[in-house]
């Protein structure tokens, strides 16, 4: 099978030639074939929505998951009653104002729409695209056209006929070339089967315009963030990693000057950058795709998929993307970028969530840190950092040398044992050392925190909470465990005798000490490290969410 190519853009008034092409295009659809069609949003991969077998072929050509329903495309509101049950008056109000245009309404379906089209749901998405050629083809075909975006499933949507050929050549009967898409992001999906109506996908029609006409609209959780395990989005398609180029994407939100700065700090020679025109000059070494001016969301919407797509042919290993604010088309543009990033988002200007962990040996601090790492945290091991600084931070070495004369040998090496003996002999001296270390570590830690804007940082500090490090944390957490469990864990972990394990524990501060000084306690009585790690993940997920909420309210 090869792909036919209809270029309907410039037939210069040859009405007959155009009519012929529209007739053949409609014929393909009527006969159960697949035809890519232009719309104002993105190109669609069309088939007769009433023909279950034709619809099945759409899923096959795209490699689309079977549980993801299709939108049917019609020529106007007069088609609503044919395919939908109990159509509310609101649907007609919306259709009158916004059709043809980038609005899909979810309504109850009539049985004439086959299960294949709606993936078995009792609702159906209906939209009237604003493209004269496609409207003419649907009118000529006389049936609604089921059409998902014409990309291979998981890839960025297609905004030109060339994009479609790249993904679909050989798999479909024809492509109708209607020029580049004017809007560039898919339609806004509004569920009218609930009250208040619910935004399932932000798109080419801004939420504000809908709200101005019909009042309050609920925004589905899948629009702004990643869903948790077991959570189901109302638009099944919103759960898939989407629009994704092959290299991992990080989205940076916030004021453009700030997000540009964050990206500058992070890029390397193999990074790709998606940025507003004004900032392209900051990335002379990187592969750059510009989105248009920071103030021009219409252009950004037109370019966003092309920008994401373009990286697939290049050798970049990671991609950073600037992101517009959520107003107007920004909500849809940001949503597509964030979905491409699997919601890996840094917030420029926002502080990271910082958690300080402490606790004695064998309690489970390492597992707790692993849990945090799996939630995306950068873990800073203060002990390792301290030793690294002792080796190469001149000021720190000098100050320690002044406070504790003789701890540095003639060869410049630190005599750790001697320093240990000195400070553990007196509380004042230990405090002195802690404060020196903290004084020098603080700027380094602050730098790392600011690199992690909007992210998550875990500070692993067995003894430094005393030094004042807790002031940098949103919460300090004592990881504790029942004594007998700790003894057994240490014996197994380090292959030592029970007696020695008990000795090691008694040489450390008791759980009580950590418990009193920390904001929270995470007690580890789990049977296995894996079970505790899972428990810790749940504990931290809740905690991080509440800290983020606090931070957001603090700013209002
Ligand atoms: O702009 C657009 O809407 C484009 C052009 C071609 O019209 N089409 C498009 O279709 O974006 P697609 O299949 O790529 O995305 C349709 C989205 C999916 O997330 C799907 O889960 C959701 O709409 N959807 C379809 N029917 C639904 C229903 N009955 N209930 C909830 N969500 C539905
Ligand atoms: Mg799609």
The small-molecule ligands in this entry are: threonylcarbamoyladenylate, magnesium ion
Q: What sort of overall outline do the alpha carbons produce when their principal axes are compared? A: elongated
The amount of beta strand, in percent, is 15-25%
**Structurally, how many domains make up the residues?**
3
Structural class: alpha/beta
* CATH class designation of the largest domain: Alpha Beta
CATH topological fold name of the largest domain? DHBP synthase
Give average pLDDT, whole number: 92
Nearest-angstrom radius of gyration?
Answer: 30 Å
State the end-to-end CA separation.
59 Å
- Total number of beta strands: 22
Describe the protein's architecture and organization.
With 556 residues, the chain is an alpha/beta fold. The protein has 3 domains: 4-223, DHBP synthase, CATH 3.90.870; 249-347, Threonylcarbamoyl-AMP synthase, C-terminal domain (Rossmann fold); 353-552, Rossmann fold. Helices cover 42% and strands 17% of the residues. It has 21 helices and 22 strands. Strands 1, 2, 3, 4, 5, 6, 7, 8, 9, 10, 11 and 12 form a 12-stranded mixed beta sheet that branches. A 5-stranded parallel beta sheet has the order 15-14-16-13-17. The protein has a 5-stranded parallel beta sheet with strand order 19-20-18-21-22, sandwiched between helices. Helix 8 links the parallel strand 11 and strand 12 (218-219). Helix 11 packs parallel to helix 12 and helix 15 runs antiparallel to helix 17. It is elongated and about 100 Å long. The model has no long low-confidence stretch (mean pLDDT 92).
